[in-house]
Amino acid sequence: TLQELKVPFARTEIGTFFQEQPRIGNQYLEDAFLQRYLKTHLPFQVLEKVSLDLERFGARVAAEIDSLGRECELNPPALQHYDAWGQRVDHIVTCPAWKRMKEIAAEEGLIAEAYERKYSIWSRVQQVAKLYLYAPSAGLFTCPLAMTDGAAKVIESLGISGPLAKAFGHLTSRDPKKFWTSGQWMTERKGGSDVASGTESVAREQPDGTYSLYGFKWFTSATDSDMTLTLARIMDAQGRVEQGSRGLSLFFLEVRDKEGKLNGIEVQRLKEKLGTRQVPTAELLLDGSKAHRISAEGRGVASIANMLTITRIHNVISAVAGMRRVINLAREYASKRVVFGKLIKDHPLHMQTMARLEVETRGAFLMLMEIARLLGLEETKMASEQDLHLLRLLTPVAKLYTGKQAIAVISEGLECFGGQGYMEDTGLPVALRDAQVLTIWEGTTNILSLDVLRSLTKSQGQVLDAFCSGVQGKLELASSISELESSVQLLQDALHRLGQFTQRVGSKGAVAMELAARDFAYTLARIYTGALLLEHAAQPDATSTDTYTAQRWCKQDLCPVDSEEKAGCYDDKAASMDTYLVYEG
Ligand code: UCC
Ligand code: FAD
Predict the structure, then answer these.
(1) Residue owning the nearest CA to atom 21 of ligand 1
(2) Which ligand is nearest to the CA of 134?
(3) Tell me, what's the pLDDT at 289?
């Protein structure tokens, strides 16, 4: 018979070969670059404690958190409008794994440690490193955590008093029973970028000094949160409101009352999303929600800016961590999968492909850690003026740049698994779906490019000076190392061209600068990241791969704003030609 002849695939045989699947190991122990960074920067006693905790946590991520994250993807939230007796309840049903994520976040102090400041200026570096190990396994619980961190930051900056004291205690608690998460309700139907014109919500002051909010919030993520910060216009006794940014004030509200009933909130529906399906994102009607005004009247946008800073940094964490994870898995896979007679890792072209991803990811990682370092300095009042300017500038730069990098790297990373990278049940495609949002929420690429310009204009050039001297400072050590010399030269040249560009563009007018905004932000990202890679490669503990990474980074176009200007992209005619090109026909 066919079976006796051992004919493969005959009858019930399905073949004998099964590809071994890639598995995640301890992401701390597998990340030599992260370990080297911490060793270079952290004081020894801090390093000892932090690395022990990261090693323990890395094991927990692999053994417990990763499968919970997968559960969250497989069991997305649902909205139950009515209970069995016909009562409107608008209950957002989340899976047990999502609830467990909240407990773990508290147990691990994922928010608390940033506010306890146990490691002084290094507390943010420690928290960010931990979130970086956590993010790709977290089933997007990183989303509520980002907003929780942002809300705690706003409260801390406004003063921890009154109703905010209770909220701050909950947001920064390590007790799973007390821990709260926060939402951030800014976007309305008319505008998520243009919040100033888009916000129609109004607030009516009540005799007890609280406010009742009326409005429609078009995107509210992690709507199962305990509280939120939101914007509205105060309506006077005659029903008048002030339009524009200056009409907006910031409010705090608890989502449910003591009995667990929604606080004047109706959940219209849950969004149907490309990715982030683990997170309940809802449309909400606010119909008399009781709220506290927590900013001065008309200072809503400026007051929520602190939240934007923190959530944008969390966006960078997710972007960089997503890149690292896909590379780690692809690396594992390449050492198991045999094609054309050898492991994929032994095909030079495949290794070149992965090396390119590795360069992008290492650069992005250093940018993330630089921002965490600056934030830690700011929060312990140890930051110089230059540090503060850099933090303001690099936050939008890193958010917009790493968001784009993440999509590209993760997409290429999926290709490293061939067809399996496209298969839902491998759990790989979710990484790409979830990366696509990183360039949209918390400000799109263009909006953040304009924010970069805002930071320059507002500081009357000081921010740009801080950037240039920051870069020069980082190059000092590298310029005395012969292998790095030519890369330092390339970077100096790019910095020089950037300086010349900023002088030229001043005379060209506002439209030219607006057209240049995105390329300008990319230029800042490439130059600063190059400087960080060179600084890293010049450390005593650096390896030959650190040198190689810095050299490769510096060989790309480090000053796209200069090349694009030379190509005429910001000329007078360019804006109308762009429109004509897009709309022809
Ligand atoms: O998307 C959202 C949540 C998603 C879920 C959570 C994800 C978590 C992260 C990922 C982890 C997995 S929440 C919605 C996010 N929405 C946005 O990002 C809005 C995008 N639009 C902007 O960023 C705009 O630039 C606005 C709305 C911030 C500002 O527009 P305006 O009205 O034109 O602003 P103005 O008039 O220029 O600025 C008003 C004030 C000024 O201060 P003063 O009055 O003192 O001069 C600005 O300097 O706000 C100040 N300001 C800032 N300050 C504006 N932006 C900033 C900033 N970035 N930093 C400091
Ligand atoms: P628009 O502002 O209409 O932008 C459309 C396009 O125009 C974009 O490409 C943009 O870059 C471009 N554009 C806009 N203005 C300019 C300009 N001046 N110059 C050049 N280009 C410009 N919001 C919340 O408040 N809370 C949440 O919890 C929340 N969760 C979200 C979850 C998900 C999954 C998503 C996708 C969004 C979420 N948002 C949330 C909304 C998000 O912040 C907004 O969608 C985003 O800020 C963009 O706003 P918009 O949708 O109004 O786009």
Answers:
(1) 193
(2) 1
(3) 98
- The alpha carbon of 154 and the centre of ligand 1 are apart by a number of angstroms equal to 13
Q: Quickly tell me which residue has 């404690």 as its tokens.
A: 49
* pLDDT reported for residue 11: 67
Residue 276 Ramachandran class (φ > 0 left, ψ -120 to 50 alpha, else beta): left
The DSSP letter of residue 22 is P
Looking up tokens 């930071």 gives 455
The CB density around residue 189, as the number of other CB atoms within 10 Å, is 12
What residues does each domain of the chain span? 179-300, 456-583
Which pLDDT tens digit goes with each residue over 462-513?
999 999 999 999 999 999 999 999 999 999 999 999 999 999 987 888 889 9
**Secondary structure E strands in 235-326:** 248-254, 265-270, 281-293
> Would you give the end-to-end CA distance of the chain in angstroms?
67
Query: Encoding tokens for residue 57?
Result: 């946590």
How many angstroms does the Cα of residue 316 sit away from the middle of ligand 2? Answer: 17
The pLDDT assigned to 475 comes to 97
Q: Which residue has 């089933």 as its token pair?
A: 139
pTM of the model: 0.98
Mutate to test the pocket of ligand 2, among 444, 513, 520, 578 (most ligand atoms within 8 A of CB): 444
Nearest CA to 569 out of 503, 492, 508 is that of 508
Architecture of domain 179-300: Beta Barrel (2.40)
Q: Please write the tens of the pLDDT for every residue from 425-470.
A: 999 999 999 999 999 999 999 999 999 999 999 998 899 999 999 9
Helix boundaries (H) for 479-571: 482-506, 510-537, 544-554, 560-566
How many contiguous H segments (helices) and E segments (strands) does the chain have?
A: 20, 11
pLDDT band at 8 (very low <50, low <70, confident <90, very high): confident
Question: Which atom of ligand 2 lies at the shortest distance from residue 514's CA?
Answer: 19
CB 554 within 8 A of CB 388: no
Asked if residue 26 lies in contact with residue 55, where contact means CB atoms within 8 angstroms, the answer is yes
